[in-house]
Amino acid sequence: MEKKFSHLSPSGEPQMVDVGEKKVTKRIAIAESRVVLDEAILDRLENDEIHTKKGPVFQTAIIAGIMAAKKTSELIPLCHPLGLDKCDVEIEIDEDRSVRIRCTAAVEGKTGIEMEALTGASIAALTIYDMCKGFSHNIRIVETKLLEKRGGKSDYATP
Length: 159
Fold this sequence. Notes:
The chain has helices spanning 39-42, 57-70, 72-75, 114-132; strands at 25-36, 45-46, 49-52, 55-56, 86-93, 98-109, 140-150, 156-157. The protein is an alpha+beta fold. The protein has a single domain, classed as Molybdopterin cofactor biosynthesis C (MoaC) domain (Alpha-Beta Plaits), CATH 3.30.70.640. It has a five-stranded antiparallel beta sheet, covered by helices on one side. The protein has a three-stranded antiparallel beta sheet with strand order 2-3-4. The chain starts with 24 loop residues before the first strand and ends with a strand.
């Protein structure tokens, strides 16, 4: 079967995918972003949190990630609006001292949830950058990727 872009009409114009005939299924997606912080920022880490004049960095990033996931269809033009059943954002410091952000989103719906998980992880990473840039601009968001999606037509897991 030939693969095609689902968001293009037969004439090549952008279109929103028609999900009217799809079955409602439980859909879950997990996405991850990774942020590398400067040592000057990491030196401020206390009890798994960085405190700045703007407030607690990771707690704020978690809230921002959840808010962003809920607004994905407002940010990405052809995404369907979804009422999330669940959205969790977890942040941890790895052994290599990079920050891992994992966003899990779930919905009972006719279309996937991976864009919501990716948006949540991305915005949490950008929030960390915003809140820490006063200490150093030597901050890198090094990757954002889909780790897993279940439900719907096909499942996926990062190899």
